[in-house]
Design brief:
Layout lengths: L6 H9 L1 H24 L5 H17 L31 E8 L10 H4 L10 E8 L14 E5 L14 H9 L2 E5 L13 H16 L7 E6 L1 H18 L10 E5 L19 E3 L11 H4 L13 H5 L23 H8 L3 E7 L5 H13 L3 E7 L23 H18 L3
Parallel strand pairs: 3-4, 3-5, 5-6, 6-8, 7-8, 8-9
Antiparallel strand pairs: 1-2, 2-4
Length: about 425
């Protein structure tokens, strides 16, 4: 059972029960993992061991997912249409704006994955955030050959704001171009669960192609964690549209994926990154069937996504978690024709993942699946990295034990866009 508490009750619990649980729970967690550190002897510092385990428990309690029997989901973010006020948005080097874009056009075919739940989830206007170097005409029509990044935020499909971290701002700094983030509806109730995120992502893509006039092959998709999963779902749907004869939306140049789930951190040698679409540590298995989910539980801060994030997101597809729209890492051995079509279309992919994160095994499986089909995949394996820790690079307290992966992630993104420059644009 999944429930969304009334906002007033949820707020009361946030200010009463949650602090009490945090004080007791985090104190106990610190004591327990002070002991486990000397028992397990992990290849990193005690400070890091305590941070990741306290953070995991704190995130669980803070979201009230400590009550798995109740299935309490977070509240809808009241800031979802708001430009946040932080040191990123206040930087004189960038301009930021938000626009509410039109829902996905009725002209775009609704394929089987959407038709399965017809009448349960509909289209809706989508908040879209545009970020670009200062002085850029944010909403101008695309210039010939101009490239753009369509970003989809992470957060387990239940939380996350595109402007909370440096991610989109760093993409702007690297590309010196526009980055557009479609802030899709989070899966918090029956009306906003999947395929709402897919419909909203398609609306964002449609906006760039039809309203702003970007050539599809000049668009790179980027997403971290659940955002990486959303990027994979969007690319699959665009590909299936073409297979059904609808070619008005096209396919992207590539994908940048971060934190997609994969395998045992010591089972795979480090690979040299090559230019690809950017998938920063993408989440790619909602069945939670890969070994690293348990093996890396105490080396990562990622909370248990099966408590409410997965059930809430897939509530209309509860017996279909192995579907490629939810668990693309399970389409193994390159036998999924989708991957072969991406290879033929020269869609480039850049994937990054940390070997100490809970999603490590599924990330590796996803990469191997794409490579087996001939997709041009660059895989940056971040030694002992945890889930998307490059996003917290500006928190000095975490360093040098965490967030040290950012230079490697940044270099991978730079090489990806340099490769696109050499390939040329439409």
């Amino acid at each position: 059972m999944l429930i969304q508490l009334p906002r007033t009750l949820h707020t009361v619990l946030d200010f009463t029960l949650v602090p009490a649980l945090l004080v007791s729970g985090l104190s106990l967690t610190a004591v327990v993992h002070l002991c486990t550190y000397f028992w397990i002897r992990p290849p990193f510092s005690l400070k890091r061991h305590l941070i990741v385990n306290i953070a995991r428990v704190g995130l669980t309690i803070g979201d009230l997912s400590v009550f798995p029997g109740l299935g309490v989901v977070p509240q809808r973010d009241a800031r979802e249409q708001t430009v946040l006020s932080n040191w990123y948005t206040k930087s004189p080097d960038t301009d930021v704006d938000v626009r509410i874009i039109e829902p996905l056009s009725k002209d775009v075919p609704r394929l089987e994955i959407i038709e399965r739940v017809k009448g349960k989830v509909g289209e809706a206007p989508v908040p879209g955030f545009m970020v670009a170097p200062a002085g850029t005409a944010l909403w101008a029509r695309a210039a010939p050959g101009e490239r753009v990044v369509l970003h989809l935020v992470g957060g387990g499909y239940v939380t996350g704001h595109p402007l909370e971290t440096h991610g989109v701002f760093s993409l702007v700094d690297i590309t010196r171009g526009r980055v557009f983030s479609a802030n899709y509806r989070k899966s918090l109730d029956d009306a906003t669960a999947f395929p709402a995120s897919l419909l909203d992502s398609l609306a964002g893509w449609q906006f760039l192609v039809h309203e702003l006039g970007f050539a599809p092959r000049n668009i790179t998709l980027a997403g971290e964690s659940a955002g990486g999963n959303a990027v994979l779902a969007l690319t699959r749907y665009l590909d299936e549209l073409e297979q059904h004869g609808y070619t008005a939306l096209g396919l992207p140049a590539g994908m940048i994926l971060a934190a997609v789930r994969v395998a045992d951190p010591l089972a795979f040698p480090l690979l040299t990154p090559t230019p690809t679409d950017i998938l920063p540590q993408p989440w790619s298995d909602m069945t939670c069937s890969f070994p690293s989910i348990k093996a890396n539980k105490y080396t990562d801060y990622l909370m248990d996504l099966s408590v409410y994030a997965i059930p809430s997101h897939t509530r209309h597809y509860s017996n279909q978690l192995s579907d490629a729209y939810f668990s693309p890492a399970l389409s193994m051995h390159g036998d999924d024709p989708h991957w072969k079509r991406l290879a033929s279309a020269r869609v480039a992919v850049h994937v990054s993942g940390g070997t100490a994160e809970a999603l490590w095994d599924e990330i590796v499986a996803l990469v191997q699946t794409m490579q087996a089909a001939g997709v041009d995949v660059a895989f940056a394996q971040l030694a002992l990295g945890v889930h998307c820790d490059y996003l917290i690079k500006d928190f000095a307290v975490m360093q040098p034990d965490l967030a040290y992966t950012w230079p490697a992630v940044k270099q991978g993104w730079i090489e990806y866009f340099e490769a696109l420059d050499k390939r040329g644009y439409n």
